[in-house]
Amino acid sequence: MEQSTPWEFSDDRGRLVVAGNRPERIVAYIQAGATLWDHGIRPVGIFGSQHDGAAADPAKGGELPLREIPYLGSGAALHPDTLLEARPDLVVAVTYDSEQVYGLEAKTALELETHVPVATVAVGPGRGLAEVRERFAALAGSLGHGEPLTMARELDAAEDVLRQASGGPVRPRVVALSPAGPERVHLARPGAWPDLRALAEQGVELPEPAAGAGANWSTVAWAEAAALAPDVVLIDVRANAARVEALRTDEHWRAIEGRARVLPWNPEAPASRRAHTRFFTAVAEAIRGAAARH
After folding, report:
1. Which Gene3D superfamilies match (predicted)?
2. Left (φ > 0), alpha (ψ -120 to 50) or beta: where does 6 sit?
3. Would you say the pTM of this structure is higher than 0.90?
4. What is the tally of structural domains in the chain?
5. Rounded distance, CA 284 to CA 162, Å?
6. Which residues contact 114 (CB under 8 A, 6 or more apart)?
7. Distance between CA 167 and CA 143 in Å, rounded?
8. pLDDT for 228-253, tens place per residue?
């Protein structure tokens, strides 16, 4: 009879997560699930956050086959029993503060952990993009999966292309934002987002929005966004952000759209080499195009 091998993983809440055998049935927060998918792991269920609705947000889903993987709900409507009905060996989530399981109510997370191991990866402001990526890679590796070596080479190449695009005599201004509607917009503070900090590390010009109360966002009128004179706009395409069509009643958005190259941006993108390669490549291409227009 084959002897079982205990599994363990030190998660980013400082907890040693243990199981009698290496987990195979994994339920995950959608961002974590999309990341694990890029490592060859197919979740048996995914869940959303308090910002999500009754269906999975395709913007957050990466390359997950959302029609095939059960979506178990989101936020306060998500009951522990619903998660447990998927018979998980492990629940994988993210944490922004290295304490709370993001996407689950505190009482839900507590009850869930009495039945099944829960592992988190920190994705908040204190983490660099490469560090987030490596932590997910470590978790996937502990589960017996890894990204192909070719992915590392492709990511290195994409970073080189981005550095070259950003290092020219013209440095286009890149602004990341999440539309609240035709009156207001949330401007991302570049230092608060690992993917934006990674762009800055490669030389991308990311103007800082005005100081204010928000740690991650500066919520302003569209006139203030236009005043940043962006050449490239990374626009939040998650389901909770306003659609571009709803913004065109505002003259300042129309001015931004008229001058800038607009790229879809998912602040909760999969943290894999594959996803980051795509992101850096798209931004580099937009920067090159914007520089050519100057």
Report:
1. Nitrogenase molybdenum iron protein domain
2. beta
3. yes
4. 2
5. 5
6. none
7. 40
8. 999 999 999 999 999 999 999 999 99
